[in-house]
Amino acid sequence: MKIIAFFKLKDGVELAQALPYLADEEKMAWQLYLSGKLREFYLTSTPGLVIDIFEYESLDAFHQEMKQLPLMQANLLEITAYDLLPFKNMEFLFKDEYKSS
């Protein structure tokens, strides 16, 4: 299952508070990448916000593993994650009544 995850420092957390954890955080991210679970990773222009794409068997499995992140264990990070499914909404275009002549 493909998962998009938004990693954001919690409100009120300054980047300086997260700095001591970042080396270990990135080591774990590298291991997730090497294992094939972390597929894509992006910084954003919003300070403290990272967006990643993962492959996991379920959202539950993803959330269980993310509890091991150093920033999560330090209670500095919040994660919002969604499973990505095929976009089937356009299938109505292929029904006979919606086809152009």
Q: What is the H/E string?
A: EHEEHHE
Number of helices: 3
Percent in helix? 25-40%
What's the story with the biggest beta sheet? 4 strands, antiparallel
Helix/sheet category:
alpha+beta
Provide mean pLDDT, rounded. 93
Radius of gyration: 18 Å
Percent strand equals: 25-35%
Give the quaternary arrangement of the chains.
single chain
Q: Indicate the overall shape.
A: elongated
Strands of the widest sheet, in order across it, are 2-3-1-4
Count of distinct strands: 4
Poorly predicted regions: none
Gap from first CA to last CA: 38 Å
Features:
101 residues; alpha+beta; four-stranded antiparallel sheet; 4 strands
Question: How would you describe this structure to a colleague?
Answer:
This protein is α+β, with helices and mostly antiparallel strands and 101 residues long. The protein has helices spanning 15-34, 59-66, 70-73; strands at 2-9, 38-43, 49-55, 77-84. The mean pLDDT is 93.
